Amino acid sequence: MADHELGAGASAAAGSAVFVGRRRELAELHAEIDRPGLAALRGSAPAAARVLLIAGRPGSGRTTLALRLAAELAARYPDGLLFARLTGADGTPLPAARIARDLLRSWRLPPRPAPVPGLPAQAAGAPAEASRPVAAVPPARAVPAPTTTSVSAPSGPAPSSGAGDASAGLSASSGAAPRGAAASARARTAPADPSTSTGAPTARADRSASPSAEHAAPSRVSGVSMPAGAAASSGRPGASPGAAPAVPPGRPGGPTGTASAGAPGVGGASVSSGAPARAPFAGGGDVVGDPVGVLRAAVEGRRVLVVLDDVAEGGQVAEVLPGGPQALVVATSRGPLAGVADVRPCALGGLDAGAAVELITEVAGATRVTCDPAAAEALARQCEGNPTALRLLAGWMAARPGRTVGDALAEVSRVAEAETDVSPVARAFRVVYAALPGPAARLARLLAIAPDATVDDQFASALAGCAPAAAGRMLDELLTHGVVRPGPDGTRLVLGSLQPLLAAELAARERPADVTVARARMLERAVRLLRSCRGYAEPLGSPARKAAAELPKEVRFPSAEAADRWLRERFPVLLAAARIAVADGELDTLARRLAVALLRALEAHRQAADRVPELYELHGLLLTVAKRHAEPRQQAAALLELADLDARRGRSAEALRGYRAALDAARAGNDPLAQGRALEALGDGYRELGDAERAADWYGRALTLRLGRGDLAAQVRLHGRLGALATSAGRTAVALREWRSAAAVARRAGDPSGVARALAATAVVQERSGQPEEALRTGQEALHWARQAGDTRTEGTILLRMADVLDRLGDPAGARIQREAAGRLLQPHGAPPA
């Protein structure tokens, strides 16, 4: 799950979950921070940041504990909090470049505390660095916001146990969603080029764990927004300094939208109700160069706190480890981190008996535990204190008011006797899964193929093949049982520790063909939503907008703003869906449609500039599909787009290689349009490198191709570029020939503005070659064509050039008249008076 962030958006559970147990572990971790490392014992300065490791199996609450620690340490690291998950939803380790980008994008400064009457900001608990003004910049990429692990019992929302690790979700920013979706809601233009001067130019309210209870609105604890499952941890309220017990929504003092103004935070700071300021790094959206190098340079010398969740191997940490002792890294993993020096480990086992019983009490209700405390303690022992197992069984009881703790103990004991070699989480899951109704159980196992382990009513209805309302009810049931976690805006996040179990059930109970059909329905739904989203970015009355209005109401958006928000928030999930579809290889047509729809929606909503690395990936996915099916035309299109991205980022050598590969593919597919574009782009690339001879050669080849196809606009453009090259090289005869050819072709094409610009360029060449009278006559002709076209900007520019020629000819009065006329024409375009 690729995208998390701390401090941006709000956690759906941070204000409603109770932190139970883990007091000893927290104390150990706090003590390790200031304990001298191996380098200090040797008398040398530390070369890298201190690394604290929280080691435990998935479902042990390791992510929750890491983020609890981060919340308590926020005041000590005022330069910002960073979070990234190092393993994908399918268990695949993520590459270092992607991890670095995620860290940069998640970088947020802790929020400033609310002022205390009579005290300055520092006295109120805010560090000086955190109180400095930092402009709040909209994130380049909507990162999925953290959510709770807790699921409410029918009597009201219940706190979580810290059961399990964070799951990626959708962004928590609010906004309207496509109706029934429980979601909130240009073509590339080449840069201006002198040589082309002649060219033709309603969201449903968040559901609670039970259908009768209202889901808590987001809130923030200690300025740290946590991923799913992070809010519930494993220490008692007040167990550690600065940690504030949260109040469940619906109870006195509970949050109903934003954090309470006076809620205590880390270091005595109040919880801020506004979004925290973005850290002083603007490269998160489009990191030019090596993202790992950019990350290291950005955090150098800063007191930042970095949380690396679900580390697969030590090399992942070593690659992004900040240099210098100022930063602190908190990592979670299954075991030791080989290759990382001086790691301070904290092994995470089960909850102690008291904390485990408290967790059961909070989720299942106090009455049942009070009636049979011995059974509650026995249940805790049977689950080995595992928070996820306890949470599942407590949810099983919460969904069945007539069942007792003894009943839950009997059920899990029966499973334990039948399957002695399975984990406590697996045993608890067996109990819960067996009790689910058939449709809900089928949806649960189909959640194993949900992209980024995230689902909403729309995706759930597509997977299950039912109406969104019915899918929403089933998701509520799974939420009550603890199979999924609540996410922002009605989304649901699959518990990471349950993913393998759900996948095993899917393989055992569903035919492969049925799984493929379910995935196809989900991809088709995503394509329709993206088409609707794109339509809302177009003007009213446009064909795309009309087409969006004709779509079913479930996939329509209430406004263009809602569609834009939805795209920003859902982008990570949609990208994950495209990745999975291409990797699967069975639904290549749908995968291609999804990638194209996503690219077009990004362009329509002007979000492409913030997602350059993802654009590379999307076009790479399209290239993979094209190669798989031996489609040279599609390969050429994808290669051209990839080369364009390289060219825009200044990677000229890579761009030239890409254009050559695209040219070969276009020739193999007999695609003259792609050939022409590649040839012209090669000319542009060599011109950028200052190789005018090669640029002219490629432009000449492109011109020959365009002449054969009768493409007048392209001919004008290419004649102009050849003319500009010749002008720069001082080859007057060639330059005059090319510019006059450009003017002639523009005249045939019916483009008076193009004629005017070509003639104006011709006049410039004539003036530079010592022919001012000829330049003046050519300028007058260009002026005639500009006036015919009504192109006041070109007309004003020509008048200024003519004024220079008149000055050279010794006519200052005439030059002054021309400049005054040019000033009147150019002032509406923002130019100063002549």
Automatic annotation (TrEMBL):
Entries under InterPro entries matching the protein: P-loop_NTPase, TPR-like_helical_dom_sf
Stretches of the chain forming a coiled coil according to its record: none
The organism sits in which domain of life?
Bacteria
Identify the stretch(es) annotated as Disordered. 115-274
User: Which intervals carry biased composition (Low complexity)?
Assistant: 119-196, 208-245, 257-274
This chain's protein is named Tetratricopeptide TPR_4
Per the UniProt record, the source organism is Streptantibioticus cattleyicolor (strain ATCC 35852 / DSM 46488 / JCM 4925 / NBRC 14057 / NRRL 8057) (Streptomyces cattleya)
Taxonomy of origin reads: Bacteria, Bacillati, Actinomycetota, Actinomycetes, Kitasatosporales
